[in-house]
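Bench notes, afternoon.
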Amino acid sequence: MRRILFPGSFDPFTIGHFSIVGRALTMFDEVIIAVGINEHKPGWLTTEERVTALRNLYYNEPRVNVETYTGLTTDFATAIGAQAILRGIRSVQDFDYELSMADVNRQLTGIETVCLFTLPHLAAISSSVVRELAHFQHDITPYLPHGYVINKR
């Protein structure tokens, strides 16, 4: 089985992330969305809230699994037997950085990196922008997949 690890950002719920996972499923048998646990860098939602929200988002897609991990992404990818790490790209600067990291990952672990550009009309929509909009009480539903709603206190 070909599986790819998608180390999600701290709040990977935007339609851009969703489209990247969908395209990855055309190339791989399974996408594992990895939610990193970092107590020093809390996300908009707690780890449990992120995992629950992601599982709810992909409840009808059995080929998407959500896992948590600590430590290095490459170590986790090796531990679960992933053939590649998926990176979402929004800009040329992102791509340049990810190419350099892909080379390091390949040399250290032998794991390939697959870079998928966010669809052009979604490129400006990042999780950090959505978090900021939500913080100021703006409607974020246009940036979430299929009208998906995240209930946050």
